[in-house]
Amino acid sequence: xxxxxxxxxxxxxxxxxxxxxxxxxxxxxxxxxxxxxxxxxxxxxxxxxxxxxxxxxxxxxxxxxxxxxxxxxxxxxxxxxxxxxxxxxxxxxxxxxxxxxxxxxxxxxxxxxxxxxxxxxxxxxxxxxxxxxxxxxxxxxxxxxxxxxxxxxxxxxxxxxxxxxxxxxxxxxxxxxxxxxxxxxxxxxxxxxxxxxxxxxxxxxxxxxxxxxxxxxxxxxxxxxxxxxxxxxxxxxxxxxxxxxxxxxxxxxxxxxxxxxxxxxxxxxxxxxxxxxxxxxxxxxxxxxxxxxxxxxxxxxxxxxxxxxxxxxxxxxxxxxxxxxxxxxxxxxxxxxxxxxxxxxxxxxxxxxxxxxxxxxxxxxx
Length: 366
Fold this sequence. Notes:
By secondary structure, this protein is an alpha+beta fold. It is 59% helix and 15% strand. It is found in: Cell membrane.
């Protein structure tokens, strides 16, 4: 009974093959155009770092391409749906399929199945490729396009508060008790926020409690004198490892398991995690938006082409698709502000536009 929902095997393969080729063509076009524009706007910053050249530009392109694919794959499916169905409608192929007894849903079935397969691929691609590329590119940008850290746990330009005091480290490597800070500056301040002393050192290791600063130099603001110390000095006695773990989380650079651990750490420290929970759910609902696109763009493929309304139907299909992305981003923003629960912020746009697409299709074609 399930297979009866699809047209014949030959027609299913024909529709799926045509749809996939159109998706690839649109996606390649979008990615190349957007990558060229992105390189034009960022190439000056990349080449500003001494020693960077064509190789670094290619490295940047290789890191940006996965992000562009992940972001514009749903758009490509929407445009491919409209192009495929509008062309078939104009060539009377849709009329022939309906004359043979196929309903609109049966005609769309191969496209929806193809979109489901692409959604699964998109999820795996995001988890395995996009998150790593985003994390690497983010670290590279923070290093002003210098050498990319080999350690995935490496963080750059880290600010931490220890009561009124502030600790700055140019680089933090490792995790847990093996964490090492490099190029460390520690500012001791009074209750009014005025600086009393400035400590500088090449390296700091976790001393449980506090951090042991190596090669320390201290500058006393009052007498305006600076001196170097012969032995390591303990700084930031109340600064624990948990504050390093509670760094700013970039959900786009973390896979689902990693983001789950970050959310648990933040909640254990009493931090607000509504935005991150919404993004956690969106890592699942986002790729599934590929399944919506054939449904929203289907309005372009039905109706009589000779009626002169084909262009209007294509515009309506594009409007429905782009409206979904606008509402989806707005819902995520509302969820980050606490206006929507995380689950609702991630899934409400998907369910809403699924119902809209079904309603338009049923009312106009079924």
